[in-house]
């Protein structure tokens, strides 16, 4: 089996940069590089910032004889990535210890260390860590990015997401995750089929390519753990764009849950039909591993997944038998997808914040982030990365098409409501996850109707119409 040697990282950044920026910054603060208060800094504060920047430069400079010792804690660490990080900061006069707990313990370990207020300088965070922010564990980075020369090339999409909670920047992302359509190019050629551009075309193509007698099925359906996430993506692609706020995607602009909109039941009926007519019967129990394996092993013709799957396909599939394309759009004319990211933050308790920033700056520079993404399989954070042929060729070419059509491809903030919800509202939202997948499975198996499933999912948002922050957000 052949491995393709092309780039493993997306060519360009996520779609809907301007749309997301406008929607998110409307509720998240004045400026991506500062809060309303910081816009009125006194000259004394500016001088202090300049002094601190000088101190940080001294801490990172190689001319100093004694190295500054820092501790970084990660939740997605592995030996190869840890070595890459060390390589990228090797020129700094800093001794960096990287602690990478086992994945199933990492988040708890990070929380415990942050709560103790000791032993951590740099922390890997997922998206916007609301809990850590509200507890005062993470240092705002606004004053740092204001003087950072590479901040200007960071995607406006990311800047909007970073500041969407309270206007402050709490981390510098190292990469972005988004979904695309993987398809069996050889199967399509056998039947002279075109790559589907809409959800309806995807359904028709899946039915056409399904042949149980040959153990071939059109679509890698995820009906087990995580099925709700794929249903949500489908619902939002069916929804009226005028009603969708991508910063809080599951509360519509009329303050009602998105699951109560007419398009939700339509999307659920479609989702069920796709499972019944174009997917393997066993996929009712498939999770991530099963749906991916079904694709690369030759059981399914199409798969929607994250960029990391490209490396798996390169390893197990023959070159020329598969390819990657942009997501199909829904009846709304748009394809919505959860746009996630992870990055580096500074612990508020750190005694070496300036040196910690030097490390983050080295990892996040155009050169540093480009190298990191090439070797770690992430989508880079700088828009200038598209100038590198590594990102514009190979299986990630579909991102060029996404970038060229920001009105059609829109990233939303998965779980965005949690950033604003009160404690009482969060209690209901926290119950959604455990209940949602079983409810969706019951609908897929015909035990409940799509309408009943929609009502069940909407019940976890029963507070939305009376919520003060929802009323304020939508001016009702």
Provide the low-confidence segments as ranges. 1-57
- Number of structurally distinct domains: 2
* Mean pLDDT over all positions: 85
CATH fold category name of the largest domain? D-Maltodextrin-Binding Protein, domain 2
Report the biggest beta sheet as strand number plus sense, adding barrel if it closes: 5 strands, mixed
Strand order of the largest sheet: 2-1-3-10-4
| Helix-and-strand structural type | alpha/beta
- CATH architecture tag of the largest domain: 3-Layer(aba) Sandwich
CATH superfamily of the largest domain: Periplasmic binding protein-like II
N-C termini distance:
59 Å
Our Rg estimate from Cα atoms comes to 23 Å
Number of strands: 11
Could you name the CATH class of the largest domain? Alpha Beta
Q: Tally the helices.
A: 20
Shape: globular
Short description:
The protein is an alpha/beta fold.
Describe this structure in words.
By secondary structure, the protein is of the alpha/beta class. The protein has two domains: 23-176 and 340-393, 3-Layer(aba) Sandwich (D-Maltodextrin-Binding Protein, domain 2), CATH 3.40.190; 180-338 and 421-473, D-Maltodextrin-Binding Protein, domain 2 (3-Layer(aba) Sandwich), CATH 3.40.190.10. It contains 20 helices and eleven strands. The strands form three sheets. A five-stranded mixed beta sheet has the order 2-1-3-10-4. Strand 1, helix 3 (79-88) and strand 2 form a beta-alpha-beta unit. 49% of the residues are buried.
List the helices and strands and how they pair.
Elements: H1 17-28, H2 43-60, E1 68-73, H3 79-88, E2 94-99, H4 103-116, E3 122-126, H5 130-134, H6 142-146, H7 156-162, E4 172-177, E5 180-184, H8 185-190, H9 199-209, E6 217-219, H10 227-238, H11 262-278, H12 288-296, E7 300-305, H13 309-316, E8 322-325, E9 335-338, E10 340-346, H14 353-364, H15 366-376, H16 389-392, H17 398-404, E11 409-412, H18 423-444, H19 450-458, H20 468-473
Parallel strand pairs: 1-2, 1-3, 6-7, 9-11
Antiparallel strand pairs: 3-10, 4-10, 5-7, 5-8
